[in-house]
Design brief:
By secondary structure, the protein is an alpha+beta fold. The chain has a domain of about 110 residues: Helix Hairpins, CATH 1.10.287. It is built from three helices and four strands, in the order αββααββ.
Length: about 200
């Protein structure tokens, strides 16, 4: 009887050992945290038009630079366009205050009149001197002095007339700054500002 119980216990022990041997490896693997099976996402390809673009940091610069400078110096009296307006070649942009040049023109006219009077007087004096020299009442030296005075007065008349012509030019088109090209932009000067002039020269 005792022998039969011992045999049964031995068989049960063997069965338990076989079950543990089959189950233990998978349990150990799960306990060690093995990697899970990877997930794969599958999508169908898309076909469409795309625009290739990029961003750049740049600086715009005008093709031509124009410096507008009047031929005379003076205060800006009028601005004939608004900021941002489109102007064309020959358009009037600025007007210089004409009052100082009107005074200069009147002064030049007075100088011409004064010098002309001096020339007429010198011509009369020289004509009388020529007659007096014939009668020996005046020396030739005094006659030459009268002639020199007449020449000087005539030269002064030419100079005064040139100054008058320049004053007329200053009061005319030189008081206006005209557009030389086709620019568009902001006025670099403002009304009431003194605008320096420049003297034109032949290149």
């Amino acid at each position: 009887m005792r022998q039969a119980v011992s045999v049964r216990r031995s068989q049960c022990a063997r069965l338990m050992f076989a079950i543990l041997a089959a189950v233990l490896p998978s349990s150990i693997v799960r306990a060690q945290g093995g990697p899970p099976a990877p997930s794969v996402v599958v999508a169908a390809p898309l076909e469409q038009r795309i625009t290739i673009w990029d961003e750049f940091i740049g600086r715009f610069e005008a093709v031509e630079r124009v410096e507008i400078r009047p031929r005379v110096t003076g205060f800006i009296a009028e601005i004939h366009f608004t900021d941002g307006a489109i102007v064309h070649k020959g358009d009037k942009l600025f007007t210089i205050d004409p009052r100082p040049y009107e005074i200069a023109l009147d002064s030049a006219k007075a100088d011409v009149a004064r010098v002309k009077a001096q020339v007429r007087q010198a011509e009369l004096d020289y004509g009388r001197a020529q007659e007096i020299v014939k009668s020996s009442a005046m020396t030739v030296r005094e006659l030459d002095q009268r002639k020199a005075t007449l020449d000087v007065d005539r030269a002064l008349q030419l100079s005064a007339e040139a100054a008058l012509h320049n004053a007329e030019l200053n009061l005319g088109s030189r008081l206006f700054a005209l557009c030389p090209y086709e620019p568009t932009g902001r006025a670099p000067v403002f009304k009431g500002r003194t605008q320096p002039g420049t003297t034109p020269s032949r290149g």
